[in-house]
Known about the structure:
Structural class: alpha/beta
Largest sheet: 12 strands, mixed
Amino acid sequence: MTSGRLSQSTTSTTDAERAHPAPTLKSVKQNPPKKIIVAGELNSRLGGTHTVLNRRTFLKLASSATAGGMLGAKVYALSVEQEQAAAPVSANDHIQIALIGAGGQGMGDTRAALQVPGVKLVAVSDCYDGRLEHSKEQWGNDVFTTRDYKEVLVRKDVDAVIIGTPDHWHKQVSVDAMKAGKDVYCEKPMIHEYADGPEMIQAARANHRILQVGSQRVSSIIYVKAKEMLAAGAIGQLNMVTAHWDRNSSMGAWNYTVPLDASPETCDWPRFLGTAPKIPFNAEHFFQWRKWKAYGTGVAGDLFVHLFSGTHFITGSNGPTRAMATGGLRFWKDGRDANDVLLGLFDYPQGFNLALRVNFVDGGDESEGLVFSGSEGIMEIGWNQLTISRMPRETEPGHTIDTFTDAMQKRILAEYRQKYPRVHPSEPPAVDYEKYVAPKGYYDSYDHFKNFFAAVRTRQPVVEDAVFGYRAAGAALLSNLSVERGAVVKWDPDNMKLVS
């Protein structure tokens, strides 16, 4: 499929070496999850008159019990549709892509994209010569390479581009690409500054181009299941979402390796800087750009935006209305100006709060998690799995009468027991626990690219379009504004505007 054959639209990670041509989730109504384990009740009862099966007790049981011993536990393998053997795709039917920004994320994205049948890489642009050479080593000498991305955009054989540049180049490259008639897969965060968002949205609409942002979890079968379960009332009324993404390594803190040949000769420093302040060549700024606000958006744009994307997808919300954040440089005091610890609190008009945390100096195992708390249960998303736990609410409110006179205690207790007769339970309180697991080897980046290329072919809209991407990034960057101002900041998520 070449650019000249694409019809117009009717609408406006990251280790990809683990990529597998992953299956997609079938319709839940037509294909319910396949139950692989149904655990029975514990044979022994909880002893002691004061034993309470609270959330902590339950989680201990859940982690230590065998599959056959958990209280009311059910574990499901998500029903998936295997890829059918791809028929040979003619050269004219290929979607031909180019990579602009061939760093670790960009190359990882490209490896995942090329797993999708009918996709071919024809060009790569980057400001470092070594990455251009390595692109040919990976994908063949016939791949066109250049420092100047505009040389890629004028090519008639490029249908779509993957943009893996530093954040401060996202808007300009995306707009230029869409004006050149290319569809765009832009890495997150979509924006570097708030003014970028409206311009990118307008470019997509005016040029009838597909733009998909690269927060791949919105295409994950785990997140699709979570969205379905929340909408079905699986945890009752949502009141709180808490999420964290903690790291405990130098690479996790963006201290990426600088090649030995890094120099003004091998690196196009002026092109890299673009709109950033003009400073002498600095190899660390070039290869570890996330550490500086001139090129990146810090923890908020790198990691918070994933958590916002997932929250917005699952809840259907457009975003928060108020934000407050704090943080600082607690450990990686190496000249960077982007914080290594950030905490944020956000108010949502749908009646829930979001609390986020990223810590680059976490002393434990590196981890991430997204927890939805409702009036009737807890839903938690981990690595390629979803768990839901429900604890029955109390059948009586209880009382506090110990400080009253004996006579008053008797009167109150008599009225209380008349209203709430004592019932002796014959078994432990029932705890409902469900777990949904993605297939072994499942990789959501593959599904995200599969969805993108399907949109390129059909001209149907994508879930994470420019509007979705701006609302997620706009919400994430509220954290940076709050830290800078030392104050609560307000946001209009529907109209996508800061509120003074």
